[in-house]
Write a structure and sequence with these properties.
The complex is a heterodimer of chains A (about 210) and B (about 290). Chain A has about 210 residues and is mainly α. Chain A has eight helices and no strands. Chain A has a domain at about 40-70. The longest helix of chain A has 24 residues, at about 45-65. Chain B is mainly alpha-helical and about 290 residues long. Classes of the chains: A mainly alpha (about 210), B mainly alpha (about 290). Chain B: InterPro entries: ACTH_rcpt, GPCR_Rhodpsn, GPCR_Rhodpsn_7TM, Melcrt_ACTH_rcpt.
Chain lengths: ~210, ~290
Amino acid sequence: MSALRLISNRTSQQALANSDYTWEYEYYEYGPVSFEGLKAHKYSIVIGFWVGLAVFVIFMFFVLTLLTKTGAPHQDNAEPSEKRFRMNSFVADFGRPLESERVFSRQIAEESRSLFHFCINEVEYLDKAKQSQKGPGLESNIHFQEVPRSSGMFEEDLNCLTKFNIPNFVNTEQNSSLGEDDLLISEPPIILESKSVMQSSHRILD
Amino acid sequence: KNISDFSLNITDCTQVVVPEEVFFTVAAAGILENLLVLIAVVRNKNLHLPMYFFICSLAISDMLGSLYKTLENIFIILCKMGYLTRRGDFEKKLDDAMDSMFILSLLGSIFSLLAIAADRYITIFYALRYHNIMTLRRALVILAIIWTFCAGSSIAIALFSYEAATVIPFTILFPLMMFFILCLYVHMFLLARSHAKKIASLPTTTVHQRTNMKGAITLTIFLGVFLCCWAPFVLHILLARFCPHNPYCACYMSIFHVNGTLIMCNAIIDPMIFAFRSPELRNTFKKMFCCAR
């Protein structure tokens, strides 16, 4: 390593006449380093460095934990399906392989709808006409609050997904995921079994 | 070798030696693991996505780091056994080449992590246009640019390592990149949180008020592992440049081999926290090993 070479060169310059320039891959030759009269412990840099690093990492962890607190108020809800709708990890459920369920349940509808929450930023760029047809969650932040919870919405959602060419979300193999939970874990946001979704995802991939 | 005894106390800082078996085991494990990731991505057509290409880039740079350490150890052994001359010109050139390989590995790691973070950022903030923004071709172009730049810088740094001017930018680049990556991820977190709040404001939804630890833990692991594995070595380079004869610095530099082993541990851990998180990649592995039987 170049650092090795640096040390070796310096050492060789100050070397005694009878010692060779032991080439760079040898261990360090520190030369006339005096260890007398040290005020602090000799490994103080090592200890200080590692303690500082640990403190920094822990500090970073706490800051991130604070950032990910949602702090939203509790709300009661009678519908059992919505109890599964997790606020903190609104795409976290996407990471769970739905192939174990293999049914199109309301749960999938809920999760696919929460997918649109990510697409909110993109809404302004999209065709208004399409949005007005498809409605849920795609027009603006305000509109998605009006998402109806009817059972027929699921098919519409799928159509929305196909129309808007959502990249890689509706896909069996996924790149980066999107929720707080799985934000940095590359698990599929949605694994859906429907043929239409598969077709759309393959189209998206192409 | 008698030099080191000159005017030193009995309590001087001797080199901390890592046994060669440990060294080679760690290096071999790192190389194998990253090679597996590469093979899996190449073989499975479903994994031909920009994100997996960036993960491959990270795997390649990890492999280079481990390879460097392995070759270095082999050369030390060969020197001890006398097969290589110590002052040969060929050895010096080889040393230069290997130094540049190592710096290439470090720069490649940093830029790959940056590319992965940027890719995830675009996925979240430009979700519907992601497929148009980050096409396969663009991803490959970005990777080509990154690796060309890294190769050029590493050769330049290895050739001009005597100048302080090369060491300082090199050590500044490291924390700058980390900070930038951290900012990207924090911004992603903030968006996720604001979205969660909006969802929570829906009248008909239940809210689980809890701190989401998993994301924070994951990000801390990402950046913490990278920092803990590379920062010791970067500090070593700084100290070697600026205070080689200071006893405190010398004591820090005596743990050089431990720092090197840490870098190879990074090569082992990185695939676990990036590549193996993907179920598709794991399935590809299973298929590969099942077919091999």
